[in-house]
Specification:
Helix content: 25-40%
CATH superfamily of one domain: Alpha/Beta hydrolase fold, catalytic domain
Radius of gyration: 30 Å
Number of strands: 36
CATH architecture of one domain: 3-Layer(aba) Sandwich
Oligomer: single chain
């Protein structure tokens, strides 16, 4: 076997400062006892000293010990090394980065010694002890950072140093890695193939195939010079022996010599109490979401972020370096922690005296908001309260089924007990792939009752979106109808599968079904229910529409779901006799929680435009409902099919007293049309989002009153009682940097707080941080001026959410929506919101709908109108001279061009939100002379 001493890398590798490289002589341990081994590492100590932060002066924030995996080397960590030096030079917290090349890898010594996992953990310990011995030991709090098998080794080192004052282990951070593989499940196919007899040596040592395959996983692809830099230390078979040895050391079963050490590390990780960060590339064919889910189970306190679209080489794919350093600043900075401790945010109920507080409330005759001091009532409280009631609770018009409160409560309890008996426990995730109706209602409340976390992503996301959602949450259980279970089987979705109906044995085997709800209910009839979950336990993960990027999982606790119920019930004065028609999926399951009957009309809930006026009338008549919920897309078809209504159906609709449309703002004209169908109903269009389903509310009369105001945008009314709405002003660059306030007329990002605001995003830590605002200083000062105010510091009361919506408050405290922050058009005159000009354009007789987008360089963008015409255009391109003239005459906003399309592109779920980002790209290309089809 050929050996080789450590060496320094070439000086011209892209992104790598040669001054970071050093060779460290390390006394050998274990099988190396009596030897001295040479390690190459990157160490930013000297660079920090040149930036004015000597590592021995106590000026360090701490040290990051970074460990690469196979087949990379310390070059993997060049970004965090560079970022740490840059930050220190800018006066920010200085983190020293020490990134090793493991022995046999990178530019460290080739020893020709067989190294197992326990040896490699011992090797890393010997390396850090050698640094201490030569006076360059790890200073300050130490954070381990690992990727691939370097993650396991870094965790082994962390476990050996946890609680030791000399090492000061402060946190652990991991990029795609694994510490455990479930028994009976094959290891990932790339590793299985690489490790196969007769393939291992050829693919990993004799040729660079394994190395090149790994480098090809980068998304986007690596630049040629970067790829060459990764290949540089592995130019010959002798230099690649460590790559093959790493693959051979994968513990495939309990007989493997490294299995015991891997088990020690896996078990020990579950006892680590230091802060943890998990950054993940979900497209990794080796360390996929299965391993992330395992790590989350072991480190439930970890902050987790999945970078959608990223793969194995996440350090190349995404800006991990800034993510790690920002996280360290937030988690380990004593200054920021002290600031948080000294200035807790004021609870919602303490904010009444602020500006516009009296106007940011519901109408005077609305009932009071729920009392925050009242005892917590779980979401299923009203279901339990009506357990013996033979009255109808749920009606499914599609399946022609009626279920009483007594039947619903009994079936819910049986399913809950059955799930618990089969091992579904508090915190387990259950994905529900079922149509709204009595069965889904019973399953939902059964899961909540035992503390399981329900995962709800509707079919409107499409197969690709559903797959991303289900695999991202990695459910423990999937409960579905045949179509959903077929998708789960075909697409490899995780989780034990339970069928909604009893399937023939052959079908159950083909779909991988373990049991059915019928069998579970039979088991549960004789089983006991477990203890109820706590109010602050996670209860549900609801997915956003995906209209502004990949759909995000929004986590709600039991307390927040119950707060939503209470806010909705109080605001709409819902009683046991009210009755709900719910043609909008998020609200289809709230009837039992509100203690009133609910009915789902005949429709495909994944396609809202399938709902007809006659179906709504039939649902109202069947349930004697006083309230109707519809999505904006559903309303379009309901109005379009109104001519089919007969006298009896119109009479049924005349009994409705409240109509709501939520999901996207709708126009006065459309509300008026619905009002004609339900002449005795008060039309409402609440503003909300998946993160906070009810924020403000406005009635048709409120919209008409607002029409006299000089404001532009869509008026969505005043905040519902208990909610607070502020605006963060845009700067000249179109970014919301202003202190959130209730000042009227300020264009900016809408910031909200409410008792039923989400807990966080699921496994999207960075997104959650970006969407969270600190408590506005004006409210902090106001709270300080209330020495006798309540000191309720509940988490619900302290969270502020950046909505991403653009708008302003008017002098009456009403909120006006003017688009999304990413749709701001930054012109030479300043930021321009699109909705106002769009409303102007839509007043032109020839225009059905319009979108205004920007083309050109940022800061000098020109506004362009893209319109649907009446009659519809047959092709996409420049609008006719007549339409162009009419559009320009309708608005004071200068327009660089007017384009016409047969149909404006909309989002997937609501079918109503115009995709302005997509239109802007299309318009740019069209005006540049490129051949383009429809946007």
């Amino acid at each position: 076997m050929v050996t080789a001493a450590a060496a320094l890398p070439p000086r011209d590798l892209p992104g790598l400062d040669p001054s970071w490289s050093r060779i460290v002589d390390v006394p050998g341990v274990g099988i190396d006892a009596g030897q001295t081994r040479q390690w190459h590492c990157l160490d930013t100590a000297d660079a920090l000293a040149r930036a004015g932060v000597p590592v021995t002066s106590g000026g360090l924030a701490g040290t990051i010990l970074a460990v690469h995996g196979n087949p990379t080397w310390s070059y993997l960590w060049r970004s965090i090394a560079a970022e740490s030096v840059r930050a220190a030079a800018a006066g920010e917290p200085a983190w020293r980065v020490v990134a090793v090349d493991q022995l046999e890898m990178g530019y460290s010594e080739r020893t020709a010694v067989h190294r197992t996992l326990p040896q490699r953990v011992a090797d890393l310990e010997a390396f850090t002890e050698a640094l201490a011995a030569d006076g360059t030991g790890l200073e300050g709090p130490v954070v381990t950072l690992g990727h691939d098998w370097g993650g396991v080794i870094s965790l082994g080192w962390a476990l050996d140093h946890a609680g030791r004052p000399d090492a000061q282990l402060a946190a652990v951070a991991l990029l795609n890695t694994a510490v455990h593989h479930p028994a009976g499940v094959p290891i990932p196919s790339p590793l299985r193939l690489a490790g196969a007899r007769g393939v291992l040596a050829a693919s990993t040592v004799a040729t660079p195939a394994f190395l090149d395959t790994t480098l090809a996983l980068a998304s986007p692809p690596l630049a040629p010079r970067v790829r060459a830099a990764y290949r540089a230390p592995y130019a010959s078979a002798d230099r690649r022996r460590g790559i093959g040895a790493f693959v051979a050391d994968i513990p495939v079963d309990a007989e493997h010599e490294s299995f015991a050490e891997l088990t020690r590390i896996a078990d020990g990780v579950a006892a680590l109490e230091v802060p943890a960060l998990l950054l993940w590339g979900p497209n990794d064919p080796v360390f996929g979401d299965r391993y992330l889910d395992d790590l989350v189970d072991r480190l439930p306190h970890a902050d987790v972020h999945r970078f959608e679209g990223a793969s194995h080489l996440i350090a190349e794919d995404r800006p991990y370096a800034s993510a790690v350093l920002d996280w360290l600043g937030a988690r380990l900075s004593p200054v920021s922690q002290a600031s948080q401790d000294e200035q807790p945010a004021p609870p919602v109920e303490e904010r009444a005296p602020q500006a516009h507080a009296s106007r940011n409330q519901a109408a005077p005759d609305a009932p009071d908001a729920p009392d925050a001091s009242a005892p917590f009532r779980p979401l299923w409280h009203n279901l339990d309260a009506r357990a013996g009631d033979p009255a109808t609770a749920v009606i499914d018009m599609t399946r022609d089924r009626r279920v009483s409160w007594r039947q619903l409560e009994a079936q819910t309890r049986r399913i809950a007990a059955g799930l618990a008996a089969m091992g579904v426990a508090r915190g387990d995730r259950v994905s529900l792939l079922m149509q709204p109706g009595p069965t889904l209602t019973a399953v939902l409340y059964a899961c909540l009752r035992i503390g399981a976390v329900v995962v709800v992503a509707d079919a409107g996301l499409g197969i690709k979106g559903l797959t991303r959602a289900v695999r991202g949450t990695w459910p423990d259980v999937v409960i579905g109808e045949r179509l959903g279970l077929t998708a789960a089987r075909t697409l490899g979705w995780p989780g034990i599968r339970i069928s909604a109906e009893r399937l023939p044995r052959a079908a159950a085997l083909a779909l991988g079904v373990t049991t059915s709800l019928h069998d579970l209910a039979e088991t549960g009839a004789a089983a006991e229910l477990p203890a109820e979950p706590g109010p602050d336990d996670d209860a549900a993960i609801l997915f956003t529409s995906g209209s502004t990027g990949p759909a995000k999982g929004v986590v709600y606790t039991h307390r927040q779901l119950s707060a939503l119920r209470d806010v909705l019930g109080a605001h709409l004065e819902i009683t046991a006799d009210t009755g709900l028609v719910t043609g909008f999926a998020p609200f289809a399951l709230l009837g039992p929680a509100l203690g009133t009957r609910s009915v789902t009309p005949v429709m495909d809930v994944s396609a809202p435009r399938t709902l007809t006026a006659t179906a709504v009338a039939a649902a109202v008549d069947a349930s004697d409902a006083a309230i109707v919920f519809l999505s904006p897309a559903a309303i379009l078809n309901v109005v379009d099919t109104a001519d089919a209504l007969g006298p009896a159906e119109r009479a049924a609709l005349a009994r409705v007293r409240t109509f709501l449309s939520t999901g996207a703002p709708i126009s006065e004209a459309m509300l008026t049309a619905v009002g004609e169908l339900m002449p005795n109903a008060t039309p409402h269009t609440p503003y909300g989002m998946t993160e906070c389903l009810l924020v403000t509310d406005v009635t048709l009369s409120g919209i008409r009153d607002a029409a006299a105001a000089p404001d532009t945008g869509v008026c969505v009314g005043t905040p519902i009682e208990g909610n607070t709405v502020l605006v963060s002003a845009l700067d000249a660059d179109g970014v919301a940097t202003g202190e959130p306030s209730a000042a009227p007329g300020v264009l900016g990002e809408i910031v909200i707080s409410a008792p039923h605001l989400k807990a966080h995003y699921d496994r999207l830590h960075l997104t959650d941080v970006a969407a969270t605002r600190d408590t506005p200083s004006a409210l902090v000062e106001e709270r300080a001026a209330q020495p006798h105010a309540s000191r309720d510091h509940s988490p619900t009361a302290q969270r502020w959410h950046r909505t991403g919506d653009l708008g302003h408050l008017d002098v009456e405290g009403r909120l006006w929506i003017e688009g999304r922050t990413q749709h701001v058009i930054v012109t030479a005159e300043g930021p321009l919101a699109p909705v106002g000009p769009e409303q102007d354009v839509e007043r032109a007789d020839a225009v059905r709908r319009a979108a205004v987008v920007g083309v050109g360089p940022h800061g000098l963008k020109q506004a362009v109108a893209v319109v649907e015409t009446v009659p519809a255009a047959t092709a996409s391109g420049l609008a006719s001279p007549e339409v162009t003239a009419a559009v320009r005459a309708a608005t004071a906003q200068p327009l660089a061009a007017v384009l016409a399309v047969p149909q404006l592109p909309t989002d997937v779920r609501h079918n109503s939100k115009i995709d302005r980002s997509r239109l802007a790209v299309w318009a740019e290309r069209a005006l540049a002379g490129s051949r383009v089809g429809r946007p």
